[in-house]
UniProtKB/TrEMBL annotation:
This is Sugar phosphate phosphatase. One of its GO terms (biological process) is DNA damage response. It catalyses: beta-D-fructose 6-phosphate = dihydroxyacetone + D-glyceraldehyde 3-phosphate; beta-D-fructose 1-phosphate + H2O = D-fructose + phosphate. Its EC number is 3.1.3.-.
Amino acid sequence: MEFDTKTRPSYTSDKTSFAYISARDRWPVILTGAIDDVHRAVSETTDEEKRTEGKRIVEELAKLNPLPDDGKPDIASYNKELEQLGSPSWFNIPWLYAECYLYRRIATAFALSSHWKQYDIFARQKMSTFRSSRPAVLELAGRYHELIKQMENKGNKSQEELDAAEKILFMEMCEICLWGNATDLSLLTSLTYEDIQKLQGSEARKASEKNIIANDLEAAYNTLKKAKSEGKKYRQVDIVLDNAGFELYVDLILAGFLLSSGLATNIILHPKAIPWFVSDVVPKDFADLLNALANPQPFYSTPSEDEVAAGKTPTPLSQKEIDELAFLFKTWSEFHSEGQLMLRTSTFWTEGGSYWRLPSSAPKLYEDLKESEIVIFKGDLNYRKLTGDGIWDPTTPFTTAIGPLGPGSGVNVLALRTCKADVVVGLKPGLDEELKGEDKSGKREWAWSGKWAVCSFSNGK
Ligand code: F6P
Ligand code: MG
């Protein structure tokens, strides 16, 4: 629309694009999963009215027509955009709009019901996948505890040594936070739980360092360090969250590190206001994660339905593991109750367009983000929205591709994104061709699986 980039966005009609693959292969799987979930919930209820309503919701889910008004301000712009697109089909529509529309449509169907208003069709999957990330969760809890102890115990190290250590830790924490994005639930259509566990371990992380193909973490660190050295009392970092479960857990690890090291004094987390792209964080996921950590033994040791069916009994947590998780819970809940770690929702994040629209669509949110030292955007969808999901030349500077949020915007942007879509910018000349290798089909397949990543920074001040 009016404020968007003029670079053409990715369309589902382009057969060489990931947009096409996702419309053809992934949406049906995601929608069928959603329908299965409602059927399951319908069969669990004895309330006849609720059952009838649940069945009607299922019929609503895959339509592509104007959204019914659920009282929220974004419905009008969704419908206006749909009208401007003419009569699009699922296979001839801008990919970004179509996917947002799909999840917005699902939310509308529930919002307009009387018995299913708060229902999150993805909640079951989000929690069970988090539970299956147990090895990586425990490994990181141990590492985090160790690290905080080291930071508190400065010994007789010089300021220079302390600064060097802080910088290395910042990089490591950001990388942990970055790779936590590689395993979102929309990829579960092609990955097994075992694949995910392998991707989440520290070995995999180290091996993946070379796969960060644009890396501005040093500039981001220098920005935070400078604000701290200048003696600024209030230094906020915002994290525009992506996925719940393991990714939220690593986001909290980064948030905790920034607060404990004094690189930030306050963290604002931005979850979504409605269930979104299967696994994105809604406020309840944050509460559920803390509850699981508050009482980890029953969470991990009570067999799941699948484990019961397979006759498996999970190994109970050791006392050391319980203590390390308790340490995390205590640190995070203290930051939360002190007001240093806060959640702030906005309906802007679930609108149908790109973040090029932020200054005009959500001026208040835009002003808030200018207060931040750095706004960290997690994940693939946030990156697509920052860059307008455009078919940019991959050597375009990141600062150009994010348009109104680039230099002069007043917002410092750091994108931590594992690549799961075609759009990519900020690459060295020739790298895209190298990664495409022998494949002359025009497809950018290397960028679809979360194997490669970018950490791109734009100084907007
Ligand atoms: O359909 C694939 C997809 O939904 C992409 O549109 C999206 O970019 C990605 O999966 C979700 O990834 P992330 O959770 O990193 O935003
Ligand atoms: Mg996501």
